[in-house]
Specification:
Blueprint (H helix, E strand, L loop, with lengths): L1 H125 L1 H23 L5 H27 L24 H5 L22 H5 L7 E2 L10 E4 L4 E3 L13 E3 L2 H6 L3 E2 L3
Parallel strand pairs: 3-5
Antiparallel strand pairs: 1-4, 2-3, 2-4
Helix pairs in contact: 1-3, 2-3
């Protein structure tokens, strides 16, 4: 009951306060609106005049600045054209010099650097050190596998030694790979020459089985003097499967000096860098005969 009475008294007090303050609020709003209208009416002419003056000032400024801008633009275009005319010959000259320079560098690398590098790598690969490195690398790999299988820890000294051997093995592998990469495709092919067969005694045989019961001395077979092989003739050269002007054999006729490699279909003429080490599978009398047989001229 007390709460209801309290709420009722609060509502009556609030309503009475609203009724008392409403006239004052309405009067304040009315007077504020009238003051705002009067203020806008007083400021409106000044704002209009300020807008007109700003527009005039902007127009005057643009009229003063526009000639200077036009003059600057008119000067920039000739300067740019003059600069382009001066720079263009230099740029054209540089562009004309670039292709010959690149071609000269490529020829130097192909003719001088790569052959020299290939020769050095062949010399290094031919040395016994490369084989020793490969054998050491194989031994190191086997030791590592055994050590890993046994589960024992390596000592620091063996680690260093193993790393050195591994580095040597990698170096040897690089040498071999580069050697194969830069090797002449015409090299590495040699005719098979059978070795003289020699008799090796069987240790399981007795002397009687070897010489028999009688002690007769074996008679030597008569040795006949070998007749020199006849030089190949032009008819043999003409019967070559590579056409006229070609010869297949180890001793070509006179005038057949061009070496041909059947695997690469390239021929080498005397004076080339790879001529001496090329194993000839066919000889040609002239470059025309080699080209007629489908061979092309080697680069070196």
């Amino acid at each position: 009951m007390k709460t209801k009475k309290l709420l009722h008294s609060v509502e009556e007090g609030t309503q009475a306060a609203v009724e008392r303050l409403s006239p004052y609020v309405e009067q304040a709003l009315r007077e504020g609106g009238e003051f705002a209208d009067q203020t806008y009416a007083k400021l409106r002419p000044g704002l209009r005049e300020a807008q007109i003056r700003s527009a005039r000032l902007a127009a005057d400024t643009f009229e003063k600045v526009q000639p200077a801008i036009d003059d600057a633009l008119s000067r920039v275009s000739p300067a740019v054209d003059a600069t382009v005319k001066k720079v263009r010959p230099a740029v054209d000259d540089v562009l004309e010099r670039i292709p010959p320079t690149v071609e000269y560098a490529r020829e130097r690398v192909q003719d001088d650097v790569l052959p020299a590098l290939a020769a050095q790598l062949r010399q290094l690969a031919a040395q016994p050190l490369a084989k020793e490195i490969q054998a050491a690398a194989a031994a190191t790999a086997l030791a590592a596998q055994l050590e890993k299988a046994s589960g024992k820890k390596k000592r620091s000294g063996w680690k260093v030694f193993g790393r050195v051997l591994l580095a040597g093995a990698l170096l040897g592998g690089v040498f071999v790979a580069v050697r194969k990469l830069f090797a002449d495709p015409a090299t590495g092919w040699e005719n098979h020459v059978p070795k003289n067969s020699t008799y090796v005694a069987d240790p399981t045989l007795d002397d009687d089985d070897l010489f028999g019961d009688d002690e007769t001395e074996p008679q030597a077979a008569p040795v006949s003097e070998a007749e020199p092989a006849a030089a190949p003739t032009a008819s043999e050269a003409s019967s070559s499967p590579y056409g006229p002007g070609s010869y297949v054999g180890d001793e070509p006729p006179a005038g057949f000096e061009i070496k041909g490699n059947d695997r690469s279909l390239k021929y080498h003429v005397p004076g080339m860098a790879a001529y001496d080490r090329t194993i000839a599978e066919v000889w040609f009398e002239s470059e025309e005969a080699a080209q007629a047989a489908g061979f092309t001229r080697a680069q070196r």
